[in-house]
């Protein structure tokens, strides 16, 4: 009940003071969360609803994504996406290595987390009717590029960690590791994404 009350009251209170409704949700969530008042735990239902909400936001952005506008402005979107990924990624990686004293895999994971994007303001953009603006199309496209790169880094980090654990286990058992090498798995993934998948989609939808 408290969670529903916050979801309903947050936007109303914020809009009364002239702020976007999202601001009210953020501030009420901060105060009701475990680090201030402790009324609502992060685990369980709240975490699941958050994951569903993020997926819905990405789906909503993809649903109204204009591929023709992206192709017309693809150079700007790609450059913006690369800058939006690499600047926070490199800074976070350097900070994690230099000040937190993390290992390479941990620093890469921190960099991927800071470099990813979530389109939390997109519902307000839709409500204002700005989704067809050039800047908005470039920002959404750049967010997709940054998220793809972040997911790629995350996949490499998790795969490398799993392979290292499996190699250690198999070296103790003195039996060969049947897992594919990481470089071979990445080559197969790239071949599937850039060669096989486009042909399957063309055959399916064209």
UniProtKB/TrEMBL annotation:
<dbReference type="InterPro" id="IPR006153">
    <property type="entry name" value="Cation/H_exchanger_TM"/>
</dbReference>
<keyword id="KW-0813">Transport</keyword>
<dbReference type="GO" id="GO:1902600">
    <property type="term" value="P:proton transmembrane transport"/>
</dbReference>
<keyword id="KW-0050">Antiport</keyword>
<protein>
    <recommendedName>
        <fullName>Cation/H+ exchanger transmembrane domain-containing protein</fullName>
    </recommendedName>
</protein>
<feature type="transmembrane region" description="Helical">
    <location>
        <begin position="77"/>
        <end position="97"/>
    </location>
</feature>
<dbReference type="GO" id="GO:0015297">
    <property type="term" value="F:antiporter activity"/>
</dbReference>
<feature type="transmembrane region" description="Helical">
    <location>
        <begin position="104"/>
        <end position="123"/>
    </location>
</feature>
<dbReference type="GO" id="GO:0016020">
    <property type="term" value="C:membrane"/>
</dbReference>
<feature type="transmembrane region" description="Helical">
    <location>
        <begin position="24"/>
        <end position="42"/>
    </location>
</feature>
<dbReference type="InterPro" id="IPR038770">
    <property type="entry name" value="Na+/solute_symporter_sf"/>
</dbReference>
<keyword id="KW-0472">Membrane</keyword>
<feature type="domain" description="Cation/H+ exchanger transmembrane">
    <location>
        <begin position="6"/>
        <end position="201"/>
    </location>
</feature>
<feature type="transmembrane region" description="Helical">
    <location>
        <begin position="179"/>
        <end position="197"/>
    </location>
</feature>
<feature type="transmembrane region" description="Helical">
    <location>
        <begin position="135"/>
        <end position="158"/>
    </location>
</feature>
<dbReference type="Pfam" id="PF00999">
    <property type="entry name" value="Na_H_Exchanger"/>
</dbReference>
<keyword id="KW-0406">Ion transport</keyword>
<keyword id="KW-0812">Transmembrane</keyword>
<keyword id="KW-1133">Transmembrane helix</keyword>
<feature type="transmembrane region" description="Helical">
    <location>
        <begin position="54"/>
        <end position="71"/>
    </location>
</feature>
């Amino acid at each position: 009940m408290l969670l529903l009350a916050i979801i309903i009251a947050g936007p109303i209170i914020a809009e009364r003071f002239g702020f976007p409704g999202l601001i009210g949700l953020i501030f009420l969530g901060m105060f009701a969360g475990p680090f201030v008042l402790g009324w609502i735990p992060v685990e369980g239902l709240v975490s699941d609803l958050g994951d569903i909400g993020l997926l819905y936001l990405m789906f909503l952005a993809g649903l109204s994504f204009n591929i023709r506008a992206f192709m017309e402005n693809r150079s700007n979107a790609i450059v913006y996406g690369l800058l939006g990924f690499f600047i926070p990624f490199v800074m976070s990686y350097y900070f994690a290595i230099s000040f937190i004293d993390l290992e390479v895999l941990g620093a890469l994971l921190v960099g991927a987390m800071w470099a990813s994007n979530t389109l939390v303001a997109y519902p307000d953009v839709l409500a204002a009717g700005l989704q067809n603006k050039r800047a908005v199309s470039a920002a959404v496209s750049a967010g997709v590029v940054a998220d793809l790169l972040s997911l790629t880094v995350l996949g490499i980090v998790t795969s490398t960690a799993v392979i290292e654990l499996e190699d250690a286990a198999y070296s103790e058992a003195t039996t060969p590791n049947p897992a594919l090498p990481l470089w071979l798995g990445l080559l197969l993934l790239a071949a599937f994404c850039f060669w096989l998948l486009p042909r399957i989609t063309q055959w399916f939808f064209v």
